[in-house]
Amino acid sequence: MLKVWGRLNSLNVQKAMFAILEAGVPHERANAGMEHGVVQTDEYKAMNPNSVVPTIVDDGFVLWESNVIVRYISAKHAPGVLWPVDPKERADSDRWMDWQQTTFNPPLTTTFWDRVRSPGKTPADQLAQARQRLDKAIAILDAAFARREWMGGKAFNMADCVIAPGVHRFLNLPGERAAAPNIERYYKQLMQRPVAQQLLTLPLT
Fold first, then answer.
1. Strand partners, 61
2. Pairing between β-strand 2-5 and β-strand 55-58 as defined by DSSP bridges
């Protein structure tokens, strides 16, 4: 059975769990990271030398990096559903998955830590830069959702597994945020999915 290490309040673990649950993969999950510890143990580092979550083990195959896990689960368990079989459709989804990691997530993480996990500890200049970058990323994402129903296009796919937790975090951050009516429309339909109701109803911590 697939084994997953990671706490459910982690955005990256949520991404992996989205794919696992949407694909209906039998699995067991062990809490790891932050208050749960585990990730600094020798046993865990032997699986994942980065000491972060998530990590999965599938029939002896060890894999880390959340977006790679999403791709692996989607390709193995949900081809034609989560995993686009058309090369152009797959490349489009890959583009947004990579964009999430490189453009959307960094300023979102800085803002999240300042407003939720460690208020007042981020230097003002770093916060200002993060806010500017986040506003720009949100404008790009909101414009994309003006043209498509799902991140994957006409249907929910692996790109949505990756984008959804970040959208949830952005829309539920305390404090001011950029207007994003198309993202809000997307989030409303996203939260009708049973997996989203299972994963995205925990408080931000």
1. 58
2. antiparallel
Phi/psi for 194 (5° steps) reads -55, -40
State which H helix or E strand residue 4 sits in. Answer: strand 2-5
Which 3 state secondary structure label does DSSP give 55? strand
pLDDT single digits (tens) 15-44: 999 999 999 999 999 999 999 999 999 999
Amino acid making up residue 36: H
CA 38 vs. chain centroid, Å, equals 21
Nearest Cα to 82, choosing from 26, 171, 15, 140? 15
**pLDDT tens per residue, range 128-155:** 999 999 999 999 999 999 999 999 999 9
> Residue 10 to residues 14, 17, 104: CA-CA distances in angstroms?
6, 10, 16
Is this model's pTM higher than 0.85 or not? Answer: yes
Residue 61 Rama label (left phi>0; alpha psi -120 to 50; beta): beta
Contact in structure between 53 and 12 (CB atoms under 8 Å): yes
Measured between alpha carbons, how far is 160 from 22 in angstroms, rounded to an integer?
A: 11
CB 174 within 8 A of CB 119: no
What distance in Å separates the CA atoms of residue 179 and residue 22, rounded to the nearest whole number? Answer: 29
- Residue 57 forms beta bridges with which residues? 3, 62
